[in-house]
Amino acid sequence: MADFEPEIEARLWDEGWIIGGLDEAGRGALAGPVSAGVVVLNREPAEALRNAGVRDSKQLTPQQREHLAPMIKEMSSAWGVGFAIAEEIDALNIVRATKLAAMRALDSLSLFPNHLLTDYLILPEIEIPQTALVKGDQRCVSIAAASILAKTARDALMCAYEAEYPGYGFARHKGYGTQLHRSTLKRLGRCAIHRKTFSFG
Fold this sequence. Notes:
Layout: H1 7-14, E1 19-25, E2 34-40, H2 43-52, H3 62-75, E3 78-84, H4 86-92, H5 94-107, E4 115-118, E5 130-132, H6 141-164, H7 170-173, H8 179-188
Parallel strand pairs: 1-4, 4-5
Antiparallel strand pairs: 1-2, 2-3
Helix pairs in contact: 2-3, 3-6, 4-5
């Protein structure tokens, strides 16, 4: 089980806040969108998800993430995922595009939180209190749950791109700059979902 700091969320719940955990996936990839997930949890479901093994998505296997994602959706009060595509990343820059994806995730919620916990990201467009935590996905289960939804949704999209752009191996590397991906880029060049403003060297 992850070494969370449950007192962070407990204090906010004790004060009556509706907490939304927010995290992203795909910021460092060379291709595909950046995604953002948001999860609204109450105290009991948060504890249950901690006990079920929810933690920072990067610490989980793909199989573990796929197992946990439906559980997170079922046990949350609300959840949402948003994307910003490669063209938006090129036009805005990765930080602003990540915030756009986060806004789209928030806009999809059926229950809007009145306090956001984020993995070191502030959304100035949202006029509610926000707590940006260093390594927040390792400290709060609501942020970790959001990281899993962002990652699994983005991975599913990259697997779908495998059929649309064959030969790049998107189902394997999900657009990240692996040796396989970089060697394929040298052979095939960029495709429509590659980020033109990122360095491919």
